[in-house]
């Protein structure tokens, strides 16, 4: 699921928020996650290469969620909300966890809005398909991508994104944003 807030004139409908529920044809990351877990005992979301630096990328921690700036983000201030309790699908979380997720999402969006002067953004909820709700190698999670840069020809042509902002700096900045 993807939600957009866009105010630029090059969007289909300026000053319009909407939510899409796509049915993607692209290959799911689940086979990759399953292979990592089977071959090396790694978890696709928890073992991201950040090592000890991972704790400095935490923006906020709630009872059920961690808000982080990921190790290899595609754009500055990309933020992810990960559940602490394993659920492959958003459909299997408790009401209390949903309330905590809503708080974490609202808190994060406020930090981005106040700290970065209300940028356009997309947020995506990545969740296992209904038939895979019990898999052990996947977590559902949310991704928030503020639109602060424009992809250039290299990024568009290769699918390789250049991000010159360190996630540790982004997390530190967002932790320092005062919200009411």
Nearest-angstrom radius of gyration? 17 Å
CATH structural class = Alpha Beta
CATH architecture: 2-Layer Sandwich
Taking pLDDT < 50 over at least 5 consecutive residues as the criterion, the unreliable ranges are: 20-27, 49-53
Rounded mean pLDDT is 79
Bin the helical content: 25-40%
Q: Strands across the major sheet, in which order?
A: 2-1-6-7-5-4-3
Overall 3D form: globular
Please name the fourth-level CATH homologous superfamily: HIT-like
Description:
By secondary structure, the chain is α+β, with helices and mostly antiparallel strands. The chain has one domain: HIT family, subunit A, CATH 3.30.428.10. Helix content is 27%, strand content 19%. It is built from four helices and seven strands; from the N terminus they run ββαβββαββαα. It has helices at residues 30-40, 95-115, 153-158, 167-176; strands at residues 2-6, 16-20, 58-61, 65-68, 79-83, 121-126, 141-146. It has a seven-stranded antiparallel β-sheet. Residues 20-27 and 49-53 have low confidence and may be disordered.
Write the layout of secondary structure elements.
Layout: E1 2-6, E2 16-20, H1 30-40, E3 58-61, E4 65-68, E5 79-83, H2 95-115, E6 121-126, E7 141-146, H3 153-158, H4 167-176
Antiparallel strand pairs: 1-2, 1-6, 3-4, 4-5, 5-7, 6-7
């Amino acid at each position: 699921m993807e939600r957009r807030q866009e105010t630029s004139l090059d969007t289909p409908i300026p000053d319009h928020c909407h939510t899409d529920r796509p049915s993607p044809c692209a290959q799911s990351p689940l086979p990759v996650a399953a292979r990592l877990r089977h071959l090396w005992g790694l978890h696709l979301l928890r073992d991201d290469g950040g090592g000890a630096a991972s704790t400095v990328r935490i923006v906020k921690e709630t009872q059920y969620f961690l808000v982080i700036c990921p190790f290899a983000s595609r754009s500055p201030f990309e933020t992810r909300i990960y559940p602490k309790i394993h659920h492959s699908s958003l459909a299997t979380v408790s009401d209390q966890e949903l309330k905590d997720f809503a708080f974490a999402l609202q808190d994060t969006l406020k930090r981005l809005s106040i700290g970065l002067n209300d940028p356009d953004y997309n947020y995506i909820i990545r969740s296992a398909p209904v038939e895979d709700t019990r898999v052990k190698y996947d977590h559902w999670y949310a991704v928030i991508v503020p639109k602060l840069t424009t992809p250039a020809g290299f990024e568009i042509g290769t699918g390789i994104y250049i991000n010159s902002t360190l996630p540790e700096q982004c997390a530190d900045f967002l932790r320092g944003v005062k919200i009411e």
